Amino acid sequence: MTAAAFDPAAADYDRDFIRSLTGAAQRRLVRDHLDRRLAEPGRPLQVLELTCGTGEDAIHMAGLGHQVLATDLSGAMLARIKAKLAEAKLAGTVRTGAVRTQQLAVEALAAGEPLDAVNEAEGFDLVFSDFGGLNCIGPEVMAALARRLAGLVRPGGRVILVVMPHLCLWEAGWNLVRLRPRAAFRRLSRGSVTARIGDQPLSIWYHGAAALKQAFAGNFACDTIRPIGLAVPPSALEPVFARRPGLIARLEAVDRRLARCGWLAGCADHLLIDLRRVA
Predict the structure, then answer these.
(1) Dihedral angle at the C-alpha atoms of 112, 106, 108, 138, nearest 10 degrees?
(2) Residue 244 banded pLDDT, cuts 50, 70, 90
């Protein structure tokens, strides 16, 4: 994974995945779960965010009073975070120093590269990665990352990951209607799939809940699996739904009713897995 694939996407990332109706709805579904976990200990938490993008979640968590180390491979994405932080500080919604940034690839972290903005010996209460950033690594790197996080997360702390699973009903149905069967079922591949961000090729792996639990087994127990974007469509379909906010609101309500149906997570746009450090 190289920064060249993601730097050009930074300028339009917020438009496509944060301010879009579908992206915003899926993000709210993630925060339904995330914010409850953040509030449970009743104190400020030390959070490590992986693949943080333009920092929307980091700034949200900092606004709730937590200390966040936001990491991403892309320097352009981190530059967007710094601009947002300047605005948030002026508005008084985020205190100075609540979000620190580090340019760091997940592969490098998994291989042992140090976190330069925090004393690793103190550990983290939560590690978080949202919306498919970890789909850029394969099973072997995921297993290495799990081992590394076991040394970074305090006992009782959590790892919450939001990744793309092996099937998305919306994606499959939409592409079948358009007579594109290969696109409909591309997620079923057990190896990597080539995707493109702009004109840059990128290898993508899809991760099922069972494989993630196995990768983290031994040091983490799985407490929750939740579908994200089972009824709410993927951001790729935003042009179809951009003028239908009422429909998106109704689909978001359906997703909330299905939040406890973890067995459906494998056919949603994303699955959320919540792992607790036990040893």
Answers:
(1) 100
(2) very high
